[in-house]
Amino acid sequence: MARNYFDDYKRKLVTADEAVKFVRSGDWIDYGFCINAAHELDAALAKRKDELLDVNIRSCFNLWPHHTREADPEGRHFYWHSLHFSSIEQKYCDNGTLSYIPMKFYDCPEMIRRDCEPCRILMLTVSPMDRHGYFNMGVSTSSLMASVENAEYVIVEVNENVPRVLGAGQEVLHISQVDYVVEGGNPPLPVIPASEATDVERKIAENVLPFIHDGSCIQLGIGGVPTSIGNMICDSDIKDLGVHTEMYVDSFMKMAEAGNITGARKNIDRYRQVMTFALGSLELYDYIDNNPGILSYPVEYTNNVSIIAQLDNFVSINACIEVDLFGQVCSESIGPRHITGTGGQLDFVEGAYRSKGGQSFICMTSTYGSKNGMVSRIRPTLAPGTIVTDPRSAVHKIATEYGVAHLKGKNLWERAEALISIAHPDFRDDLVREAEQLNIWRQSGRIN
Question: How many CB atoms lie within 10 A of CB 331?
């Protein structure tokens, strides 16, 4: 007779208030990744504020409300650490109650196992347990198994809204690996609706679209440009696209439903869309639930440069904040002020270039700010303190609404010329003068 794992489940079932009694002053707690981060357990822990000091909470791209942070504005009782900022976490960093842990996404599991401060307790949100004793965390597989391996105690918060996503093994957590189970109130999952693209973002997408062909394998980020590209592909006759991405967004779902994505020409994981986490609409979460066409892998696989390189005609499309005339790309800070994180952009920039016929695009509007206070995103040099996400040696192509600049194989003045040619026309003359002062301009250079 098959074992009844629900007996184990019942023995480990406690309330959220009971579960957080195990937290001690000075503990390090891991909240996991993105949608799978703790929510109601965090709210229960916030109620213990006056009993605890110096509890360190580590999370990554956490979109749930930060109850302990709100209960302790000065960060004396609970101090947060993030491997990648969500919009919620930016403000906490600005007021000094949350710190960023630099990481390249591919390295995240190994960092947790080997270099990060060991966490005594892991708290995370999971799907209901199945009859075989498995909870599912495939909506954010990422580095969660490394967190499980690194924790002394594992506490899961069950949410019926968490989709069950198929994968290669590390998307599930067995009841035998869990110390305590909490049944939450099943709140709706955090969503990020697809951005409404601006006219400028649609123009950027139009400039990139001709580089995507039948059988290309694509990776997209989130935002107006990827949304536009997805919409344009849905309206095109491009076929047999493959998907290998870190983040699975609504654009992929729409392209798959429109018939553009089949994965028929993928060299590996043929016919499957591969991701390490999903983030988007409620419709997206419903789409990936028990969908055999989608596989959730750990980030050590999705962001592995050697794996990406095996997929022919790979097209990687990401966004940045600014780029300098040498080709250095910043995608995570404004000067020294941290905005997001390194994430996996460099993983895909390098992996796509190693793919046979592969290309990586870093996309941005040519300017930001109002018409009267317009600032060029293409700068002579990056401002002091600006974080370089992609070194000049790795960057392949930069796209704005004025075109695409191919940087690989170009010398310094050719790079400067290519970048100035896709800058806003109002800034091109100034950029030429700056390039001359930097000694990276030839007088024969011509900018239209």
Answer: 24
